[in-house]
Design a protein that fits this description.
Elements (H helix, E strand, L loop, with lengths): L1 H8 L4 E2 L2 H9 L6 E2 L13 H10 L6 E6 L8 H11 L6 E6 L2 H5 L2 H6 L6 E3 L5 H10 L2 E4 L9 H8 L4 E4 L14 E4 L4 H13 L1 H18 L2 H23 L1
Parallel strand pairs: 1-2, 3-4, 3-6, 4-5, 6-7, 7-8
Helix pairs in contact: 3-7, 4-9, 9-10
Length: 250
């Protein structure tokens, strides 16, 4: 029924990543184009004072910071991230993982964090938005996206790239279309805890590498993932859809 309705009523079908397009096509649905997601670049980035205030609020002064954000769920790789954190804690005694999501959702993962011996390294911030969210991204050393499900795109990666922060992302789904392996961050399988932790460790050990990758991520964002590009591509799609609908009606 879905395929029938799409065929008869939808003139143009877009997806947010090539990988998602492949999955949709595998279900017998036509895909016309990939239009990657985007962010509207902020006019003003967080000031050092705002970043310091964010760190002070959560007791993070002098700590190295990695973060996961968004919807907290098993499929987002929270357990896998805790396992990687357990590997990292021996070398990086000042490391903290901030969890940027609804605090009540994190509470379900607290027993896992305790079991893996990392509960003292996890700092749940609750839901952040606006200036506070921007300051949190700016405070990071590395953003991680360890999803074990098919991640259609991974918008949080762009939000970190806007702050010139490197990212370590899952190999499942569309994240590798956002992150250039070895240039703006690393792509790894989160089930391979040793490798995933190693990619984070490389960036923590080498601040200059992290700076270069973060700067490259910001440049890539400005080149390929702006809302202006997104709007232009959708205007093209609307024009094509209107042309096809007009031809069908005549």
């Amino acid at each position: 029924m879905i395929r029938s309705i799409l065929a008869s009523e939808v003139d143009r079908f877009t997806v947010v990543s090539d990988e998602l397009g492949e999955a949709v096509r595998a279900n017998g649905i036509r895909v016309d184009r990939t239009i990657h997601n985007a962010v509207r670049l902020k006019r003003d980035l967080p000031t050092p004072e705002q970043v310091q205030a964010l760190r002070a609020r959560f007791g993070l002064e002098g700590k190295r910071l990695i973060a996961i954000g968004g919807r907290l769920h098993d499929l987002k790789g929270v357990r896998e991230m805790f396992r990687a954190l357990a590997r990292l804690r021996g070398e990086f005694t000042d490391l903290r993982l901030i969890v940027m999501g609804r605090e009540e959702a994190y509470r379900g993962f607290e027993p896992v964090a305790r079991e893996l011996g990392v509960a003292d390294l996890v700092v749940p911030t609750g839901w952040l938005d606006g200036d506070e969210l921007a300051a949190a991204y700016a405070a990071l050393d590395v953003l991680v996206s360890p999803s074990i499900c098919f991640e259609t795109f991974g918008l949080v990666n762009l939000e970190a790239m806007e702050m010139s922060r490197p990212v370590v992302v899952t190999s499942f789904g569309g994240c590798p279309e956002v992150v250039r392996e070895g240039e703006t961050g690393f792509v790894a399988n989160p089930f391979d805890t040793e490798t995933f932790a190693d990619r984070i460790a490389r960036l923590l050990r080498d601040p200059e590498l992290a700076r270069r990758m973060g700067a490259a991520g910001r440049r890539l964002l400005e080149e390929r993932f702006t809302v202006e590009r997104l709007a232009d591509e959708f205007l093209e799609e609307y024009a094509l859809a209107l042309e096809l609908r007009t031809a069908r009606a005549s």
